[in-house]
Structures are given as structure tokens and as C-alpha cells.
Amino acid sequence: MAATAVGLRAEDQPAALPPLEQEVGAMVAGPHVTIVHFWAPWCPNCRAEMTPDGWAKFIGANPDVKVVFLNIWHRGQDPAPKLAAGHLGAQSNLTLLTHPNATSKAGPERMNTFLGLPVTWLPTTWVFRDGKLRYALNYGEVRFEMLQQLVNDSRDKWSH
Asked: Is residue 4 part of a domain?
């Protein structure tokens, strides 16, 4: 887990960013806490997070937190059945997006950065506030008690 202050305000973003990255960059740019969660329907660790006490419960308990699920390395698989099984999709604070590059994580042309940050594993979960990356969980299943603490910490004002 790493904390950093990567700025992602719209005016700071290079014009060369692909449209999807511009869209997500705009979502994380405000004064709110936003979670960006990278996942794929085939990923066993991602599916393990879709229990009744997983993402649906967390999202419901944090209506002020914007959550973006970004389906990557998906091999063209439809994410809808896995999301529905996890009771995800109808939450007003959840945005579901699919990266246009369907290549698996092993392909040479795979997406391996997003917003200028490395993406090397699924699932990967980032916590932003004020357009800055506050926490990055880059290696595997999220523990929701820990994620809740990171969100609570991110809600607090940082003086640096």
C-alpha cells in the first residue's frame, strides 16, 4: 500500500490522455472521496470481493463516496452477470465502465498504466480526494474494514 499526492485536476491532465482516462480523471477531481476499482469478470480475486458483505455492502454504507468499477483485461467478457451476482449496478454512487482494450493481462499490448499510474494486478483499488491519489491497494482482494479506514482517513483534511 502506498500513499502519494498525484495531482489529477482537469487542468493538470495532458491533452493526450485517452477519453476514458479523461472521464475518470474528471470524476476524481472534486473535493469528494472517489474509489477507482480495477477488476475483470474472469479474475478469482475480483469475484471473491463480490460476496454479500463485499462491495455492495461497502458502497451502500458510504453513499457520499463515488465508486468507479473499471473492467480491464476482460478478454471481451460481459461484466453484467458478475456484477449482478454481487448485487452491484443499481447504486447511485457507483459508475460502471469497461476499458476498450480487452486484452488479457498477459498480452503485449495490454493496458498497464491508467492516469499515469501503474496497473499491474487485479484487483487494484485506488482512493482519491481533491484530485489526488491518497491510497493505492495494488495487489489483490480488498479488505473492506481496511478500505473503510482509508476512506475515513481520506475524508479528513490533509495539511500537506
From this structure: no
